[in-house]
Amino acid sequence: MEEARKKIRTCLEDQEAFCTAACPFDFDVRNFIDKIQRGRFNAGFRAYQNSVAFPGIVSYLCHEPCKDVCIRGKKDGAISIRLLEKASIDYAARISPNNYNLPLKNKKIAVIGGGISGLACALRLCAKKYEVTIYEKSHRIGGSLWDIMPSDIFLNDIKQQFMYEEYKLCLNTEIINLGELEFDAIYVATGTNGRDFGLKGNKAGKSPGVFLGGSLMGKNIIEAIADGLNISKSIEGYIKTGSMNTPKKNNETRLQLDIKELPYAKPVIPSNGSAFTRDEALQEAKRCLKCKCDNCIQYCDLMRSFNKYPKIIENEVEATINPGTLDGNGTIATRFISTCNQCGLCKEVCPQDIDMGDFLLKSHRIMQQKGGMPWVFHDFWLRDMEFTNSKYAQVSRLPMGYEKSSYMFFPGCQLGASDSKYVIESYNFLLKEKPDTSLILGCCGAPAEWAGDKDLHNKVIEKLRNYWTSFGKPKAIFACPTCKQMFNRYLPEIEGVFLYDLMLKSKVPISVDGSGEIVSVFDPCSSREEPHLQKVIRQLTQKSGFSLNPLPMEGKLANCCSWGGQVSIANPYYTRQVVKKRIRQNDNPYITYCINCRDIFAAAKKPVYHILDILFGLHDSGRIPPTVTKRRNNRVILKQQVLSRFWKEDFKMEEREMKFNLNIIPQLGEKLDSELILETDIEAVIEHCESSGKKVLNPNTGNFFGHLQIGNMTYWVEYKSVDNGFNLVNAYSHRMSIDEGERDGGR
C-alpha cells in the first residue's frame, strides 16, 4: 500500500496551468477564465485585481509570457489572456478596490523608490494597515512608467488602487544611508542602476529586515510589479517570524497534456483592433482549455461521479482504513471503495500511470480483513460463486477416451448462466477442432477478488491450478476476457488463447448474415490489454456481413459496462447511471464478447448481440436476459446437458422437495430480480412459516407475513394462501438479524 500511496502523490492534478506557471504574478488563469466563460466579468475582474494590484497598468504593459506556453498556440493560436483581462476591466460593473476595515498594526515599513515595484509593495502593506513611508528622490511617483505608457493611465490606476489607503509619501527625498532610517523593515526598489547600499548579491541577507527587488535586480517592468507584491509577503513574514525567507518564483509545472485530439478553435480577433467586445471576450474565453491534468475525472466514471481526484481519495481511504476520529468512525470511504469497477481505465489515461483501481482493491482487502467492509455489498455474489463451484453446477472433465489434454475450455461462470447453448455449441466446436479438449465449468474467482476476500480467492485459484495439473497442464481456451485477465494475474503459468481466435482461424461457417446492418463493437474493459482479441472480434463481425461504426470509447479506452467489481449492491444509483451512459454512445446495436455486457445492455433495452449469437445463430439482438433465479437454474441445466451430451451421463440435482406451488406475477418477479432475491429463498421462507407457524395474518387482506434468515440475510415475504399453493404479494430482504428469544417455547 505504501508504494501505491507514493505513486498517488505524484498526481499532477494540483500542478499549475502552463500560463499560470509562466505568469510573474502566479495568476490563477483557470479560475479567471472560468468566470469570464460564464459572463461573470465582475468576479473575473476582482480575481485579476487581487493578483496584479494595478489592473490598468498591467493590462496595458504585460508582455504576455502566457502566450508563449499556451498549448493552443501549437494548434490554432494562443489565448489572448491580456485582452481578456482588459475586457474584465471594461465590462465589470464596479472596478474600485474593496475597503477592508482592519485594525492598525504598530509596525513601520520604509519603501525606498516610488516606482511601480515600490508602489506595489506599499499598496499591499497599506491594505494590511502597516505604517508605510515611501521615499522618492524625484518630484513624482511612477518611475520608468513615465517613459513607456501614457501618464493618465498609470496615474489614474495608482490613485484608484490607493483610494482607501493611508501612507506617507516623501518626494524629492534621496536616502543615502539606511542607518538613518528607523523602521521594522525596508524595501529597496530604486530602479535600474539605482542605489543598492552595497547589498546586492549575497550581502542582502546580512542586513536583517532589508529587502531588494524590482528593476534594481534586473527585472522587467511586469516582473518588478510582481516582485513588489511578493516582497510585501516576505516583509510581513519577517515581521512575524524574523525570517528573511524570500521564496523564488517557480516557472515550472509538471503538467502534461496531449493535444493530438484537441479540436480546432479559431482565435478571436477584436473587431475594433485593440479590445474585445463583450461577446468577443466570451467567445475567446471559451477557446481556453483551462489546462489541468484531469484525465481521471474525464474518463473514470467513479472519480467523475464523486468529483474526487487521487490525492483526495487516498486521504479518505487512509482515514477509513486507519480511522483517527474521536468516535473511531472509519466508514468515510467504504462505499466509494466498493464502487470501483476495477476496469483499469484510470491507469490507462493517467500520465503518471497511477492505478487507483489497484489501490482501491488493496484497500478493500484490508477493510475485509479487519471486518470493516459491509458484507452485504458482496454477499450475493459470493453465494453465487459458491453455487457455481458446487456439485450442482461445477464440472471438470477430460474428454472421453483421453487421459490428458492439450487444451482446456474454461467458458466462465456467466456464459452458461445466460444460456447453456453458448457453452454447448462452443465446446462442440472445440471437440471437432481439438478432440482432446477438456472442460471446466466453474468460476475464475473474480467475485472473491472484488470482495477483497483474499483467502477465499486463493482457494478458488488453487482448485483451478489442481484441475489444470491433473489434465496434463493444457493450454486454456477462454470465452470470457475477465476470466483470462484473472488467469493472467493469478495463474500466469497457464498459457491461454481465446475461443474466437480459434474460430477465425478455423474458417468456421458463420450462421448469421448481417446484410450490411450497421453495428458497433463494445469492447469489454477486461479486453483492454488484448488488442489482438479486439481485432479478431471485428474481423468476425465484418465476416458476418455487418458494417462497423466505432464507438468513441473502445480499444485501449474501453469502458466498463457496470459489471466489474459487482458494484450494483454497494451503489445501485451509480450502476444505473453507468449503464445509461454506455448504451447512449450511439443508436446502433452493439456486438460484444462479454456476456455480462450483453445481458446488462439487453436488460436496459439496448439491442445487443453476443458474438456467439452471430457465429452460431443463437439469438437476435433483442433477447431478454434471464433473471438471477433463471441464471442459477441455467447452470444446473448446463451441467446436465454437458454430462449427457459429451459423457453420456445422467445428472439430477438433489432438489429440495416443494410441497406447494408458488405463483409470482411478472412485475413482482422483476422486483425480485432487481433486488437479487432468488425465488428459492422466497420458497424457503414460506415453507418455514407454514411448517413452524411463525407467521402473522392481516385480517383485512387475508395475507400472511413472515421472515427467515438465510445465511447473513433476512428475507421477508407477504403471501396469500390459494387452492393450488400460494401467491406471492411482496418480498424484500435486509441485513438485520432478529433475536426471537425464548418466548413460546423457543418457537
TrEMBL record:
Residues 330-359 form the 4Fe-4S ferredoxin-type domain. Keywords: 4Fe-4S, Iron, Iron-sulfur, Metal-binding, Oxidoreductase. InterPro entries: 4Fe4S_Fe-S-bd, 4Fe4S_Fe_S_CS, Cys_rich_dom, DPD_II, HdrC_iron-sulfur_subunit, Helical_ferredxn. GO terms for molecular function: 4 iron, 4 sulfur cluster binding; metal ion binding; oxidoreductase activity. The keyword Transmembrane helix does not apply. One of its GO terms (cellular component) is plasma membrane. Gene3D superfamilies: Alpha-helical ferredoxin, NAD(P)-binding Rossmann-like Domain. The keyword Oxidoreductase applies. It holds the Pfam family NAD_binding_8. PANTHER family: IRON-SULFUR-BINDING OXIDOREDUCTASE FADF-RELATED, IRON-SULFUR-BINDING OXIDOREDUCTASE FADF-RELATED-RELATED. This is NADPH-dependent glutamate synthase beta chain and related oxidoreductases. It comes from Maledivibacter halophilus.
